[in-house]
Design brief:
With 368 residues, the protein is α+β, with helices and mostly antiparallel strands. The protein has 9 helices and 20 strands. A hairpin with a 7-residue loop joins strand 18 and strand 19 (327-329). It is globular, with a radius of gyration of 21 Å.
C-alpha cells in the first residue's frame, strides 16, 4: 500500500483488495440467484471501498455494490462490470451511541445491543443483510424503523469524490425510502450511527399489534429487550423470515412487495373493488394511517385475497409456504422463473383490486 495524490492534491491511497473475475454472484444473495460478475472485488476497509468505487467511476465501469445480498434480484446474465462486496467490520458502542461499519451483519449487531441492555432496534432482530443497507431502505419491522434511531450516515459521495456525513434530516427517511434510494448512483454507505436508549434493560415501547399479542402486553408497554428480540425472532421464523440454508422458504428477499400507500380517493375505489370481489359482508382489509390523507394497506392481504395463497406455484419459484409476501427459490429456480412469478402476482392483484404492487428488492439487469 502506498499513497498517491491526484491533480487536486487529494490523497488517493492505493489499497490491496480481493479480486475475482467471472465470479458467481448467486452465492452472495439470499435468493441464490443470478449470473456472474465480470469482476468481483471484496473490500474489508473503508479505504478499499472508496478506492474501488473511484477506480470504477474514473474508468466508466458499471458498479454494483453488494452488502448482505438480502435485497437483490440479479439477472441470469449476471453483471458486466465491477461488483463490490462490502465486507468491512466495526462495532463501536459508546454509552448509548452506536457506530456500525457498513459490512457488519445487521442481526448480529442487534443482538449485541440487546446484550448491552440498550433499546431501539431490538424489534429489528433477524432482518437479514448488512448494516450499510439499513438506511438505504429505511429498514423496518414489527413497529420499529431504523430512522427512529439513526443520527448520521457516513458515505462516499460519487458526485463530489468526497466522504460526507449526512444527518438524519438529510437522509430524507420515509416508508422504505431515503435519499440514498432516491439517488442510487450517488452515495455508497460506509458507516451508520445510532442513538439508542438505556431503559434499564427494557425495550422501547411495543408498537406493533402482533408483537404485543405475542408478548401478552398492551401497545405502548415495555418488556425486557431480550424478550422482545426473542419474540420477534420466533415470529419471523414462523414466516420463513430468518435465514436457514436448509429451509427453502428462506431462500428469498423477505417481503418481496411494498405495502401499498393509497390516497383517500384510491383507497375508496379499492374498498369498492374489495366488496365487489369478496362480497359486501367482507371484513375491511388492514388499514393504517400514512399521513397526508393517505392509507397504507397490506400487500400480503392483497396477494392472498387475489388467489395467491401460501405455497402458490408449481415451478421452481413459488410463494413461501409460510408467508404470502415472500417469493422463494425452491432450489433450482432461475431469476427469470422468479420474475415470471412476480409478474403473475402483480397482474393478478391489479386485476382483482386495481392496486399495483411495487417490488421491494433492487433488480439488477432485469425488471418486473
Amino acid at each position: 500500500m502506498w499513497p498517491r495524490r491526484d491533480a487536486r492534491g487529494t490523497d488517493r491511497t492505493l489499497v490491496h483488495v480481493q479480486e475475482l473475475h467471472d465470479a458467481p454472484l448467486a452465492p452472495l444473495t439470499t435468493f441464490r440467484l443470478g449470473g456472474p460478475a465480470a469482476r468481483l472485488v471484496t473490500a474489508t476497509t473503508d479505504a478499499e471501498v472508496v478506492a474501488t468505487v473511484r477506480a470504477a467511476d474514473e474508468s466508466g465501469t458499471p458498479l454494483l455494490v453488494i452488502g448482505g445480498g438480502s435485497n437483490l434480484v440479479i439477472g441470469d446474465r449476471g453483471f458486466d462490470g465491477t461488483a463490490l462486496r462490502i465486507a468491512t467490520t466495526g462495532f463501536t458502542l459508546d454509552g448509548t451511541t452506536l457506530e456500525l461499519a457498513a459490512g457488519e451483519n445487521w442481526s448480529d449487531a442487534v443482538a449485541r445491543t440487546v446484550e448491552a441492555g440498550l433499546a431501539g432496534i431490538e424489534c429489528l432482530a433477524g432482518v437479514p443483510g448488512s448494516a450499510g443497507a439499513t438506511p438505504i431502505q429505511n429498514v423496518g419491522a414489527y413497529g420499529q424503523e431504523v430512522c427512529d434511531t439513526i443520527t448520521e450516515v457516513v458515505a462516499y459521495d460519487r458526485t463530489t469524490g468526497e466522504t460526507v456525513t449526512l444527518g438524519a434530516a438529510e437522509c430524507a427517511f420515509r416508508y422504505r425510502n431515503s435519499t440514498f434510494k432516491d439517488q442510487p448512483d450517488r452515495y455508497v454507505v460506509l458507516r451508520v450511527r445510532f442513538a439508542l436508549e438505556d431503559a434499564g434493560g427494557l425495550s422501547a415501547p411495543i408498537k406493533y399489534p402482533e408483537t404485543a399479542r405475542a408478548l401478552g402486553v398492551e401497545a405502548g408497554d415495555r418488556v425486557p429487550a431480550a424478550t422482545a428480540r426473542e419474540t420477534v425472532l420466533r415470529l419471523r421464523a414462523g414466516k420463513g423470515m430468518v435465514l436457514d440454508p436448509a429451509d427453502h422458504d428462506t431462500w428469498s428477499a423477505g417481503s418481496f412487495f411494498h405495502n401499498p400507500i393509497l390516497t383517500d380517493e384510491a383507497y375508496a375505489a379499492f374498498l369498492t373493488r374489495v366488496q365487489d370481489r369478496l362480497g359486501p359482508d367482507t371484513a375491511p382489509p388492514p388499514a393504517y394511517p400514512a399521513g397526508d390523507g393517505r392509507t397504507k394497506t397490506s400487500a400480503a392481504w392483497l396477494i392472498d385475497k387475489a388467489g395467491f395463497t401460501k405455497g402458490y406455484g408449481t415451478g421452481p419459484a413459488r410463494i413461501s409456504t409460510k408467508h404470502t409476501l415472500a417469493l422463494t427459490n425452491r432450489g433450482e429456480a432461475t431469476t427469470e422463473d422468479l420474475l415470471a412469478l412476480a409478474r403473475e402476482v402483480v397482474a393478478g392483484v391489479h386485476a382483482a383490486f386495481g392496486v399495483t404492487l411495487v417490488n421491494e428488492p433492487v433488480t439488477v439487469g432485469v425488471s418486473i
